[in-house]
Amino acid sequence: MKLRVIDFGVVSALRSQAVYHGLAETITESSDPVLSLVSPEEPYVCVGMHQEIAREVDEAFCTSRNLPIYRRHVGGGAVYLDRNQLFTHFIYPRKKAPEFAMNLYPMFIEPVVRTYKQLGVNANYRPVNDIQVNGRKIGGTGAASIGEATVMVGSFMFDFDTETMARCLKVPSEKFRDKLRQTLDDYMTTMVKELAELPDRARLKKLFLSNCGDVLGVDPVETEPTAEEWAAIEQAEKDLTDPAWTNLQGRKLVELGVKISEGRHLTESMHKAPGGLIRVHLLGLDGKVSELMISGDFTCLPPEGADTLAADLHGVDLSEEALAAAADAAMKTHQIEMPGITGADIATAIMAAAHAPA
To answer: Which end of the chain is more exposed for a tag (fewer CB within 10 A), N or C?
Structure first.
C-alpha cells in the first residue's frame, strides 16, 4: 500500500493545524493513506476538542503575547506549540486503519519510537498514548475521526519551552504556576536534553519514513497536495478560526446554565482517569441527571461521542452503580471509544459534582 507523504515544511501557525484537518476531509474509502509533516513558523496555543478554554488557558496572557488559540478536532490537553516541534499526521481511510483506538496508538507510535532510538534517544511507548525516555515524557499523541478518515497526530520534540507553556495555562495562583513550570521541566524531555547534537530535519525525516515503511507495511512516496486538498486546507483555516468552533464548549456551558430553575443547581467537578481529565457540569433534579456536560482532555471517538454519552445519561439515578452501568451501556451501544476511561470513571466524576455544594 502506498503512503503519500506531504511535507509542508514550515508554515503559519494556523496552517500547521489546518493541513491535517483539510486533508482528512478529502479522504474517501479508496484513498491512499497520507502522512503530513509540518512545523509552525510562529508559536500558538492549541486546545483539545473537548476542553473548556476558559478553564484551561490564561487567555489574557495569550492576548498579551499575541498567541492565537486554536481548537483542534483531536482530544487531549492544551499545549503551547512552536517551530521546535515537527508534527506528524497519519491520515488513513477508516477501513485501512485499526478498528479500535487502543490499537491505533502502538501501531503509529512505533515508527516514532524506532526513529528516536536510531538517533540515540532511549524512547519507549507508554500506554495509553505517550512516548517516554527513562520515565520522562518526550511526546504525546492523539487520535480522531474526521470525515471518512482516521487521524493520528504526534510530533518529534526538538525542544520545548516549558516556561511559556506554564504561563499559557490557567492556574489558581502564581505559586502554583511556579510549581507547574518546575514539574514540566522535571517530567518532560526533548532532543536538546537527550542528545549532544541535534539531528537535522532531513536525516530525521529519512529515518522516520523508512521506519513507517517497515512498521506499517507501506511504501512512502513523497507527493504534493492536489488542488482539492489545497481547497480543503483553506476551508479548514476558515473553520478553525470560526468563533463558534473556538468557543464550542463555552457555548454549551451557557446553554446549560440557562436551564437552571428552582430546585435545579449547576454543579461541577473533575476526575483524573488514566485516559485523561474528565470535567463534569451537572444539573440534578429529584436524585437524577437532568442535564449534563462532559468535557476534558481525553480522547473520544467519534468526536461527538462525549455529547452522545451525556445525552444518554439524562434521567439516570445519581448513584455510582447506576451511572457506571448506564455509561458503559451507552459507550457500547454508540461504539464510543474513550481510551483509558470507563463507565466507572464517568460515574465518579458525576457523583463528585452531585455532592459538590450548589
So the answer is: C
